[in-house]
Amino acid sequence: MRPVRDILGKIEKWWDAGETFGLATVVRTFHSAPREPGAALAVSAGGEVIGSVSGGCVEGAVYELAQQVCQSGQPVLQRYGVSDDTALSVGLTCGGIIDIFVEPVSKERFPQLGAVAAAINAGQPVGVATVIAGPGEVGARRIIWAHDTAAPAGTLAAGERLDQAVDDDARGMLAQGLTGVRHYGEHGERRLDELSVFVQSFAPPPRMLVFGAIDFAAAVARAGKFLGYHVTVCDARPVFATHARFPDADEVVVQWPHRYLASTPVDERTVICVLTHDPKFDVPVLEVALRTPAGYIGAMGSRRTHEDRLARLREAGLGEAELARLRSPIGLDLGARTPEETAVSVAAELIQLRWGGSGRPLTDTAGRIHHG
């Protein structure tokens, strides 16, 4: 796949030079489509092409459409598919279906491209929301930054309600590194679907580091993957830390947890779950974890285990401010007992911390359901 990120350097040069070029982006796929949403192809004013949207199946047709769009100035949402009796026509021989949004891009049409490119190059998460179909202005665009402190740029041209709804959804998708289409009513109504908005997230998925190769870890890894995390399970015991036991994990690492954690990247979006409840494993790894910028650090165990753990960490030299970051026992109070229920309680706590929810039943609250 060649997402916009991979062809950004070239199209930014065209944009800087004041050119108008055609940008084709896969926005939706069905069945065995060869590319994921976000794959992109661009065609310059002079006919140069970079990127790919289908691995060769429909590139020729998309190339011509991109040139037509540049001449007409009108963006187009085009679907490409194939059936057994049309396999030799323009389409996908794999039997899949892809929707491709083709639009003209220039400084006038996409004035925020420079800022978006700068954020991507700096590793700062940014989302780009574009109206691709329905009532309103197709091609209208809004740029959403990961943090509320930076105001979104641009408008989707259908009123403040739509802009706010997309801002909320885009930040959620950005936090999980998700790219895809969201549907709304003409003015942003969430229960309607006349208007389609493609949200492209430029951010790596946040990491979830799960320490302890036990059955609870398998359930937490599954929940973490469902929430959009890049999940790593780590344990020093090779007989337990296997891909067969943790099929939902992106990585399974056999190493002492504290050594692995000290050598792997950790940022403010990183989630650390210590599930060993064995002092020889969890105290050393928590000593490292509480000195990282990780956004969430949780440890499983009883309250007695937690008190013993705190005493050992104090002996290791950690201060009260560092210890206050530790969420133990891990998860929200849902009455969870099984590994799967415990994983739900951990996932619930992560969602609550991400969006600032109260953790109370919604029937007991008032005002907006969605926070921030």
What do these coordinates show?
- By secondary structure, the chain is an alpha/beta fold.
- Helices cover 31% and strands 23% of the residues.
- The protein contains ten helices and 16 strands.
- It has helices at 4-16, 59-72, 113-121, 160-176, 215-226, 257-263, 279-289, 303-315, 320-323, 339-355, and strands spanning 21-30, 40-43, 49-51, 76-80, 97-105, 126-133, 141-145, 153-155, 180-184, 195-202, 207-211, 230-235, 251-254, 271-274, 296-299, 326-327.
- Strands 13-12-11-14-15-16 form a six-stranded parallel beta sheet, with helices on both faces. It has a five-stranded antiparallel beta sheet with strand order 3-2-1-5-4, sandwiched between helices. Strands 8-7-6-10-9 form a five-stranded antiparallel beta sheet, with helices on both faces.
- α1 (4-16) packs across α3 (113-121), α5 packs across α10 and α6 (257-263) runs parallel beside α7 (279-289).
- The chain is elongated.
- The two termini are 33 Å apart.
- 42% of the residues are buried.
- Residues 83-93 have low confidence and may be disordered.
Low-confidence stretches: 83-93
The mean pLDDT is 89
Cα separation of the termini: 33 Å
Total DSSP E strands: 16
> What is Rg?
24 Å
- How would you characterize the largest beta sheet? 6 strands, parallel
The helical percent reads 25-40%
Computed structural class: alpha/beta
What count of helical segments does DSSP give? 10
Q: Identify the strand order in the major beta sheet.
A: 13-12-11-14-15-16
- As a percent range, the share of strand residues is 15-25%
Shape: elongated
Instruction: Tell me the series of helices and strands, N- to C-terminal.
Output: HEEEHEEHEEEHEEEHEEHEHEHHEH
